[in-house]
Amino acid sequence: MDTSSNEFLRGTLKTIVLKLLAEQPATGEAKSRPGRMYGYEITQAVKERTKGEITLSFGALYPVLHKLEQEGLLITETEEVDGRLRKYYSLTPTGNKAAEQKVSDFERFMEAMRTLLLTPPQLATGH
Amino acid sequence: MDTSSNEFLRGTLKTIVLKLLAEQPATGEAKSRPGRMYGYEITQAVKERTKGEITLSFGALYPVLHKLEQEGLLITETEEVDGRLRKYYSLTPTGNKAAEQKVSDFERFMEAMRTLLLTPPQLATGH
DNA sequence: AATTATATGTAAGATTCCGATATATGCAAC
DNA sequence: GTTGCATATATCGGAATCTTACATATAATT
């Protein structure tokens, strides 16, 4: 019964990941790198912030992360935490720009969708 | 160099088509069926109303139209106009409900995306 | 005569995503 | 003490979706 959501998710996954990383500004403390997140953390953050409306599957997330890394938008640091390996992802400068670009692209797209889906038909008369 | 848009279009095509047909309420005149549109007309309408921001390709549109027809959401009427065959699509009652459902699903999705992409990271204590 | 706009459609291929599966640790319950 | 759950990363097969290019055809314009 996963309601809708996943259907529209197509094409927005990269944007979500990039934006999440972009808005993690050095959580203070001893962490030197800004915007570090690991895969599992990303899925949890998305689930929590959207109140379960959007859920990222691992089968979709990890390939995207790997691809973004290949494209030079992310860099990884593997650390051992509690005896387990954890892989942190953070944005490169290029990735940061890509994040901003993607978000603004998506805003434009949403605006266009609004004119399609939420415009009453009578406004279509342009004279 | 296709400017963004198309990237996010994934998964929204059906919604767009259903909504366009749903909001065409018997354009008056002699037309008996409400919401009749043909494929080419749909692409033009989307292009015009989004000022070129969103462009549907025929290779994507026609398969979607055929599938929606198979699913019983659309019915077709083929007529000859100016010596050419033209295929009109209109919503069935089921298709009408599907249109409303899809649009409201998409609104929920957009709301979720807003909380992800447009939420200021003020929680991160900007000391 | 050639091009553009109109009009519908198919086929090959790439991309993207989901679900299942595999592996492995820490912890709480029982 | 082992079963199950949360944490954690990752791959694979398959399905769905979209793009590009192609095929066909008429009417109007140049």
TrEMBL record, chains A, B:
Pfam families, alphabetized: PadR (PF03551)
Entries under InterPro entries matching the protein: Metal_resp_DNA-bind_regulator, Tscrpt_reg_PadR_N, WH-like_DNA-bd_sf, WH_DNA-bd_sf
Coiled-coil annotated residue ranges, if any: none
Superkingdom field: Bacteria
Transcription regulator PadR N-terminal domain span: 35-100
Name assigned to this protein: Helix-turn-helix transcriptional regulator
Species for this entry: Spirosoma terrae
